[in-house]
């Protein structure tokens, strides 16, 4: 089989892979595997050519479906009476969306049968180092590396000794020697074997090698009348430990921060049944709300009429008009960060009809427009409750950067996210966005504005990047535009 060196790929592909693997919280190597699998199954995401490398986000990925990302484990079952608990472990891992491929040592087959293990894991079971069926492409190497984690349960005294000393004379020990994945061991043995100086040395060596141990617990042994430390941890404990290694807790850089976000269009009534609106879908603002919530912020989202589900864990205030939006924004203060992503109507109808306007012989009814309050400018210019970081959006169809620069000055906000919304870009209502982040250099003291242009991304990726910039800024870690 050919091997692939990620380092040797061209920059655009490397950038795409880094961003996608950060988003999905997988290693780059695993991401390549997923892409290839999706390609074969004909459901790959389109590859986007990136023009400039984005900062790799540390912000967590919003889960669109709420489902956990898939992971895979190679489970090595050693020969001990505790092997029966491994059958339950397979089930516990599978309920956590973990694929399990099992390896049985020769001794393990005295306690559980390959048939039972295969029935529970829905996979073939591996027992021999020299198995003609799997060795044509070095099966033990695949079992060692084609997974996210190796779990050994029960890890017998003999398996610990082999592993600590680098033996590779059967399939289990060959996998453990050939792996570059994390290894979780669940030891199980008689208390005297556990406390024996040889086992102590082996365990200490394995811990130095970076292997993670769970248990053993203390309790009664299978041998009549014996008790002490040596019982294998329960299947649920091992499954939880595996999950912590597979899906480490997501960092919450915005914990304790309150973030206010506006999104969507506004509807400005003409009469009780008609209104003026625009084409904003609200997708970008909703994605920012979800990303901020995932980063630990308390999020209040004030949204105009949209066809989107409320993001989980976010307080959503639904409004129709610009004036209602301003009211809800003011009611939500104070906040640490405010992001105004709504496409607020600039004007409303001054002479709104109390009844449905009728066609008359006098011709079209004269609609008089008056300017709506500018929510972004109003909040940016507050003296008492102004959020320390105020971010506006500039959706332009021409002279994007120049217009965005003057908007930053005119509105008095700290950052502007500028995007081209001319029809050819498909940004309005679409799923992708190309943005430029404008911020005042040195906090605006010298009047200079920094422009950071991001590659084309999905609106979710833009949201994750923006939230990562916000997190760096509010936690004082300055980088690039985070002033
Ligand atoms: O002036 P313009 O509509 O282009 O400004 C865009 C930015 O100002 C966006 O952040 C938008 O949410 C905000 N805005 C606002 N209230 C308005 C108009 C725009 O908050 N009435």
Automatic annotation (TrEMBL):
Q: Give the record's pathway.
A: Cofactor biosynthesis; coenzyme A biosynthesis; CoA from (R)-pantothenate: step 2/5; Cofactor biosynthesis; coenzyme A biosynthesis; CoA from (R)-pantothenate: step 3/5
Q: Per its UniProt record, what SUPFAM superfamilies does this chain match?
A: CoaB-like, Homo-oligomeric flavin-containing Cys decarboxylases, HFCD, Ribbon-helix-helix
Q: Where is the segment annotated Phosphopantothenoylcysteine decarboxylase?
A: 1-258
Gene Ontology cellular component annotations, sorted alphabetically:
phosphopantothenoylcysteine decarboxylase complex
List the keywords (alphabetical). Answer: Decarboxylase, Flavoprotein, FMN, Ligase, Lyase, Magnesium, Metal-binding, Multifunctional enzyme
Query: Cofactor(s) for this protein?
Result: Mg(2+); FMN
GO BP: any one term = coenzyme A biosynthetic process
Which positions fall inside the Antitoxin FitA-like ribbon-helix-helix domain?
2-38
Catalysed reactions listed for this entry:
(R)-4'-phosphopantothenate + L-cysteine + CTP = N-[(R)-4-phosphopantothenoyl]-L-cysteine + CMP + diphosphate + H(+); N-[(R)-4-phosphopantothenoyl]-L-cysteine + H(+) = (R)-4'-phosphopantetheine + CO2
* Molecular functions (GO terms): FMN binding; metal ion binding; phosphopantothenate--cysteine ligase activity; phosphopantothenoylcysteine decarboxylase activity
Q: Specify one Pfam family.
A: FitA-like_RHH
By sequence similarity, the record places it as follows: In the C-terminal section; belongs to the PPC synthetase family.
Q: Say what the protein does.
A: Catalyzes two steps in the biosynthesis of coenzyme A. In the first step cysteine is conjugated to 4'-phosphopantothenate to form 4-phosphopantothenoylcysteine, in the latter compound is decarboxylated to form 4'-phosphopantotheine. Catalyzes two sequential steps in the biosynthesis of coenzyme A. In the first step cysteine is conjugated to 4'-phosphopantothenate to form 4-phosphopantothenoylcysteine. In the second step the latter compound is decarboxylated to form 4'-phosphopantotheine.
| Protein name (database record) | Coenzyme A biosynthesis bifunctional protein CoaBC
Q: Report the source organism.
A: Bradyrhizobium forestalis
- As recorded in Swiss-Prot or TrEMBL, the protein's gene is named coaBC
């Amino acid at each position: 089989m050919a091997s692939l060196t990620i380092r040797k790929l061209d920059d655009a592909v490397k950038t795409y892979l880094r961003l996608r693997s950060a988003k999905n919280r997988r290693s780059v190597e695993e991401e390549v595997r997923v892409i290839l699998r999706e390609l074969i199954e004909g459901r790959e995401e389109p590859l986007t050519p990136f023009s400039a490398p984005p900062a790799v986000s540390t912000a967590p990925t919003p889960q669109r479906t709420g489902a956990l990302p898939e992971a895979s484990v190679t489970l090595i079952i050693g020969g001990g009476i505790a092997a029966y608990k491994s059958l339950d472990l397979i089930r516990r891992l599978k309920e956590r969306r973990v694929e399990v491929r099992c390896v049985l040592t020769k001794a393990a087959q005295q306690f559980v049968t390959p048939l039972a293990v295969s029935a529970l894991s829905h996979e073939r079971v591996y027992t021999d180092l020299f198995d003609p069926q799997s060795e044509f492409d070095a099966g033990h190497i695949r079992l060692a590396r084609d997974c996210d984690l190796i779990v050994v349960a029960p890890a017998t005294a003999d398996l610990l000794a082999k592993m600590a000393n680098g033996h590779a004379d059967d399939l289990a020990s060959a996998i453990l020697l050939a792996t570059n994945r994390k290894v979780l061991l669940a030891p199980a043995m008689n208390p005297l074997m556990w406390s024996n100086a040889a086992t102590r040395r082996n365990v200490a060596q394995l811990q130095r090698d970076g292997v993670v141990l769970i248990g053993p617990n203390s309790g009664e042994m299978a041998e009549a009348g014996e008790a002490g430390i040596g019982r294998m941890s329960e299947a649920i404990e091992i499954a939880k430990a595996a999950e912590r290694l597979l899906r480490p807790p997501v960092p919450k850089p915005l914990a304790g921060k309150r973030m206010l976000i506006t999104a969507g269009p506004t509807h400005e009534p003409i009469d009780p049944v008609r209104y003026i609106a625009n084409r904003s879908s609200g997708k970008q603002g909703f994605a920012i709300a979800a990303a901020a919530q995932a980063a630990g912020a308390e999020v209040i989202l004030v949204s105009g009429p949209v066809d989107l589900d409320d993001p989980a864990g976010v307080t959503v205030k639904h409004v129709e008009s610009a004036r209602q939006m301003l009211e809800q924004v003011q009611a939500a203060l104070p906040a640490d960060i405010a992001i105004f992503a709504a496409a607020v109507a600039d004007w409303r109808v001054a002479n709104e009809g109390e009844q449905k306007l009728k066609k008359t012989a006098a011709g079209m009814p004269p609609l008089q427009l008056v300017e709506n309050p500018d929510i972004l400018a109003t909040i940016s210019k507050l003296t008492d409750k102004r959020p320390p970081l105020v971010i506006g959006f500039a959706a332009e169809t021409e002279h994007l950067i120049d217009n965005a620069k003057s908007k930053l000055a005119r509105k008095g906000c700290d950052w502007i996210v500028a995007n081209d919304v001319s029809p050819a870009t498909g940004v309005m209502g679409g799923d992708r966005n190309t943005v430029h982040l404008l911020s005042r250099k040195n906090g605006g003291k010298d009047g200079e504005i920094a422009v950071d242009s991001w590659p084309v991304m999905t609106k979710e990726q833009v949201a994750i990047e923006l939230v990562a910039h916000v997190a760096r800024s509010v936690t004082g870690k300055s980088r690039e535009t985070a002033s």
